[in-house]
Amino acid sequence: MRVNFLDEEKISREIRWDQIFIVLAIILLLAAPALHFSYHLYGARQIENEIDRVNRQIGLIQADVEEHQRLEEQVEEYQEIIEDRQMRHLLPEALRSLGEEISADIHLEYLEFYEGEIFIGGVGSSTGEVLGYASSLERAAPFSSAEVENLDSNDTVDFDMHLEVKREGE
What we know:
There is one protein chain. The protein has 170 residues and is α+β, with helices and mostly antiparallel strands. It has a domain at 91-165: General secretion pathway protein M, EpsM (Gyrase A, domain 2, 2-Layer Sandwich). It is built from two helices and four strands, in the order H-E-E-H-E-E. Strands 1-2-4-3 form a four-stranded antiparallel sheet. It is rod-shaped. 9% of the residues are buried.
């Protein structure tokens, strides 16, 4: 049971929709920039996270690239060693062919060997003798080409010749 000691007045309140709409509009006007700012702040954080992820991937890729370059350098070193050893293996055969094909009328004055190429110079009794020596060397197994570069004819024929040694597999 309820006992009322005070007189209650029935107050009827009227809803004023225009004031509610004005208050809501003011709240929206104040909240919109805050919502806009928070939306862009969230987007900026997502972009920063994506940048961090990409930077980590770049770091991993750079490490892989550095490892790849180091391995490429090792491969190049090994290839140089292999080519050097192949040339050492081919040089005795090339020198033997030089000696086998030379005639008694040709005298070699110098011989240089550099990276698979032999440069020789000498004196011959005739131009035909020197050209014959060059063509016989070109047909010899260890050489891929033989070119007479200088041919000076006096009483004797001075010549310079360039020979390319065949590498294995050629």
